[in-house]
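To the wet lab folks,

You asked to see what we're planning to order before we commit. Fair enough. Below is the target structure as tokens, and below that is the sequence we designed to fit it. If anything looks off to you, flag it before the synthesis order goes out.
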């Protein structure tokens, strides 16, 4: 058996920690292209219309990126939106904040200036007062790390502040591997249970986060749109597929230890298929857009 899939911990993720708020910069870099390809572009058009309608010639649109990581959302979105923008980058990790600020685009879609500031802290503690004057709140791959109460609080803060929200890439629990394997369903169920686990006294939403956000915003009278935003991984994303498989299997085995007896051989089969260009993986995500009442 090849070294890459031998031994009891062969499936351990090297870069990613599923359902952990701590993200490796290398993992964020590895997934950035797949994230960019997955996000729903038609929701960006709705955001653009909203920002243009509410634009103030004397001030840039304030956009707050929650859990910004290394800033991939800003790099993807700022250049797709018109007008001057001031991005407030929020994260608990000062190293990630510095990286995000240094790599933000300098200009918007129409050549208007884009600036950035950083704010260290916990996004779950943001209130409507903190969001005063904010045109748009963004987040990417964040909602599934929150609890139902935290998602509800975020929706309340955005609604009370009159801020739109574009919340991308929340996992849905849908995973399709082609060709299929008899272990797929058991691993998927255990992984989803792991995503919903209690951590530090908090029960995470995991794959229920997107639906919870839609309900929380809709209950407050905002206009809500959602779109599927799946990763589609094949031979051209072999490195990301390798790392995702290790994280997926490792989390499933943590949740259901009896699966570990088959994990290494399963991983080996999957990695061999990936190397041969025969494996396709679809990882379900959802993008949610909430617009204030009366927005275009």
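Sequence we intend to order:
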């Amino acid at each position: 058996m090849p070294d890459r899939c031998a031994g009891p911990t062969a499936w351990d993720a090297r870069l990613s920690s599923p359902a952990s708020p701590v993200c490796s910069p290398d993992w964020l870099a590895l997934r950035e292209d797949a994230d960019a390809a997955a996000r729903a572009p038609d929701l960006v058009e709705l955001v653009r219309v909203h920002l243009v309608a509410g634009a103030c010639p004397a001030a840039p649109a304030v956009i707050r990126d929650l859990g910004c990581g290394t800033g991939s959302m800003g790099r993807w979105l700022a250049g797709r939106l018109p007008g001057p923008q001031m991005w407030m980058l929020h994260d608990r990790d000062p190293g990630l904040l510095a990286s995000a600020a240094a790599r933000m685009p300098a200009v918007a879609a129409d050549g208007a200036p884009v600036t950035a500031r950083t704010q260290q802290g916990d996004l779950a503690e943001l209130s409507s007062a903190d969001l005063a004057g904010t045109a748009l709140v963004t987040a990417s791959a964040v909602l599934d790390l929150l609890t139902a109460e935290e998602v509800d609080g975020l929706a309340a803060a955005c609604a009370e502040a009159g801020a739109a929200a574009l919340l991308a890439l929340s996992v849905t629990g849908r995973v399709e591997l082609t060709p299929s394997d008899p272990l797929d369903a058991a691993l998927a169920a255990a992984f989803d249970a792991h995503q919903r686990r209690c951590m530090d006294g908090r029960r995470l939403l995991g794959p229920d986060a997107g639906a919870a956000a839609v309900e929380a915003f809709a209950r407050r009278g905002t206009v809500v749109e959602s779109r599927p935003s799946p990763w589609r991984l094949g031979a051209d994303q072999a490195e990301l597929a390798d790392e995702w498989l290790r994280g997926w299997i490792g989390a499933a085995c943590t949740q259901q230890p009896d699966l570990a007896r088959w994990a290494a051989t399963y991983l080996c089969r999957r990695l061999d298929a990936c190397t041969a260009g025969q494996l396709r993986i679809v990882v379900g995500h959802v993008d949610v857009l909430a617009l204030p009442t009366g927005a275009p």
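Structural context that might help your review: The CA atoms of residues 19 and 121 lie 19 Å apart. Residues 3-291 form a domain with the Rossmann fold fold (CATH 3.40.50.150).

Thanks,
Computational group
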